Amino acid sequence: MLLTISTTVRPATDLGFLLHKHPDRVQEFGQSYGVARVLYPEAGEERCTAALMLDVDPIRLVRSRDRATPDYTLGQYVNDRPYAASSLLAVALADVFRTARTGRCASRPELAAGPIPLEITLPVLPCRGGPGLAHRLFEPLGWRVEATALPLDEEFPEWGDSRYVRLVLRGEVRLADALNQLYVLLPVLDDAKHYWVAPDEVDKLIRAGGSWLASHPDRGLITRRYLGRRWALTRTAFARLAEIGDDVEEDLEPPVEEDPAAEVATGDHARKDGEDTAAERAAEEGSVGEDLAEKEYAGRSGPASGASQEGSSPAGAVRRPLNTLRLEAVLATLEGLDASTVIDLGCGSGRLVGALLERPRFTRVTGVDVSSRALAFAARRLKLDRMPERRRERLELFQGALTYTDARFAGYDAAVLMEVVEHVDPPRLDALERVVFGAARPGHVIVTTPNVEHNVRYESLDGMRHPDHRFEWTRAEFRAWAAKVCGEYGYRVEFLPIGDDDPEVGPPTQMALFGLAGASGGSGGTEGSAGTGGVVSAAGHTSVRGPVSVNTDGHAGAGDAGGGDD
Fold this sequence. Notes:
alpha+beta
């Protein structure tokens, strides 16, 4: 496998000083799995190129494997490792250019300290994510990226592309930074390592990525892949990176709103420390708070939920993530109610709590979660330690389970269960209903949950939207549950769509606005111009009402949800 580094800095042969490798010599460095060689195909005043060639011995590679991870297949001898840039090349690079990676150069200290024009070429690079992932990882670091997918077989183009790319990076970058970026990102792109990922890998990651990783937009993906998705190590790395920059740890973490360990409603299940969960693996490429299908939703275009044709977005417009639209719909509904005190039941990392604190009309805002880790992230997101005293007086965060009666849940004008109920085991729903609607008994309750009928619109989705969902309701099932709650606890309910209100399968998210029969306040705003919501009284009768409409610009309005039976 081959890596070349070229520069046009004058004199270009100073590259030899920066790499601590003389341009006139071929140098060899033994590795446990083969031999690494450094040579200079060209070395002139105007351009100089250093090449790192790694000759992998498949037999030595097999013999260097950890005995705890045996592989008795032929694949351990016949594979792409001798030919494709991978963690093998990253380890060789770290060894061969150890001093260069520190940025030290006694002969040319000014040159080593600043950016120089560089061109780095990797002829064959395994890239699980395609050329697009290479662009995502290197462009934020200041590189101009040329990533070309390599065909499976040039003689059979109909077979399509392989998972390998030819990668060329060009830019003005400090050489030490470039080497450290390659050391981290080569195994990340390959999504594999040839050795056991031990705890000291966290230190290696922080040393190599400390100057750039904390500010990288895909730092979560990079950290998880580099550490082999070993969750105990990943959490340690998140905490270490959080020390480098504010608001880093909660961005790196998988969404706590969808955290299986939190068990939002019950807290009945636990996992062993360090055990990776399906949700955390799935969260790798999603943004905070997104279901697995919501990333796909964000790229779709078309009219927003409940929006008229005249109010729809232009053709081809990029939609914002569904979790953003959901948050805005909940905020718009709360603002339309005669409510000044709100409790977020299952607050996760505190996105809704933070948004409520930005609105002075909400004089008391409380966040509850069964996960202490989620509450710690919420406190960090909200900058609790630096929050002005007057705002801090309006806020309360505490730990609690929604299936156990807690006097602290009572006394609020409105309660929110945003993407919570689907995480509760069905036999425990009755307990949640008793706690929220029976004991706490707020004036209004907002519940959002996925509409399983809409899942057919997600081409890449297989099963439920998130591994921790215990169920996903159809619109009829959601209405039946809501009618039962109204009948037992004396509430009325209005159903509101969030996202594209598909005429065949409905919106991706369904929202119910419960109000105590006879309670004052409505959802306010103006009636939507398309789609229908429904109001169910305590007796279970239904009539049509105007829904909340959330368009692609994020503006929302709500239909009437006034008191009395319909």
